[in-house]
UniProtKB/TrEMBL annotation:
Pro residues: bias regions: 40-50
UniProt name for this protein: Tetratricopeptide repeat protein
Region (Disordered): 31-57
Native organism: Pyruvatibacter mobilis
Signal peptide range in chain numbering: 1-30
UniProt entry keywords in alphabetical sequence: Signal
InterPro entries: TPR-like_helical_dom_sf
Top-level taxon of the source organism: Bacteria
């Protein structure tokens, strides 16, 4: 948030009064004094009034919350460069990923690429920055899904994402975002590569993913975004076997606050997924899962 600095200039005016002299001539005769005159005092300078809060430039976080993502990115990157602030770079990455989620399909790859750059810059400034590592793992996951399993494997995206998740967990072991990302890492790889190849190439397993999901779900501050994404991963893996767990997560997402523009959007997506799950139509649910996964 930009700091509002207010200089208050106090003006000190001095009142100059002429002295009235009395002269003596001869016996006790006194001269009649001339009438005293008072020069007007200079006006005091008006103090500089502080700029009202409502007229101050909104912070990058406020811009993000209201859905002004492009403006939030520009403001956050400017502050990050000016102050070497990893938190501002991480916020820019978050805003870019939200923007990508809502953008036309042809624009998403470019936005995700910019988010990845911002997240990597945040981690370069501060390797232990929690939000920077979380956003890096998210951006890598979105990029890997977009480019396909083989290309992602060849570029080492899964290993880089896992390193970012491990760093986040080392900094904040109970963080629900970090736990959910660890679970997503396991489940996504098993979904894409199958259990045997996932275990052989990456050491990923469904059991470890479910364990991390349970830890995230049990956290009292788990957000609706986390709950929705965990439900989506479980339904993508096996919508029949994990229907009850996914329904529980989506119901919990309904009860969470949606304070930002992006949270309100994702709350609507969670409701759509829940309705499809409860429809009893496997085809309808499959279409909704595919629609969600094609967002990136």
């Amino acid at each position: 948030m930009n700091l509002l600095r207010t200089r208050i200039i106090a003006g000190l005016a001095f009142l100059l009064l002429p002295v009235a002299g009395i002269g003596m001539a001869g016996a006790a005769r006194a001269e009649v004094p001339e009438p005293a005159t008072t020069e007007p005092a200079p006006p005091e300078p008006a103090p500089i009034e502080p700029v009202p809060a409502e007229q101050a430039a909104p912070s990058p976080a406020a811009l993000y919350a209201e859905g002004a993502y492009a403006e939030a990115v520009a403001a956050a990157l400017a502050l990050g460069d000016a102050h070497g602030d990893a938190g501002m770079d991480a916020l820019a990455a978050r805003a870019l990923l939200a923007q990508a989620r809502l953008a036309p399909r042809g624009e998403r790859a470019g936005l995700v690429g910019r988010a990845l750059e911002a997240a990597r810059r945040a981690v370069a400034r501060d390797p232990q920055h929690l939000e920077g590592n979380l956003q890096l793992a998210l951006a890598l996951g979105y990029q890997g899904r977009a480019m396909g399993n083989l290309a992602a494997h060849q570029r080492g995206l899964a290993e880089e994402a896992r390193a970012a998740i491990d760093t986040a967990l080392a900094v904040a072991p109970d963080n629900p975002w970090a736990q959910a990302l660890l679970g997503s890492w396991h489940v996504e790889i098993v979904t894409g590569a199958g259990p045997l190849l996932a275990a052989t190439l990456y050491g990923a397993s469904l059991d470890e993913g479910l364990k991390a999901f349970r830890a995230a779900e049990a956290h009292p501050e788990v957000s609706l975004l986390v709950l929705h994404q965990m439900a989506l991963h479980l339904l993508s893996y096996d919508s029949r076997s994990f229907a009850r767990q996914a329904e529980r997560m989506l119901m919990a997402a309904r009860a969470r606050d949606a304070g930002t523009h992006f949270e309100r959007h994702m709350a609507r997506q969670a409701d759509r997924l829940l309705r499809a799950l409860r429809s009893g139509s496997h085809a309808m649910l499959a279409r909704e899962i595919e629609r969600e996964r094609l967002t990136f």
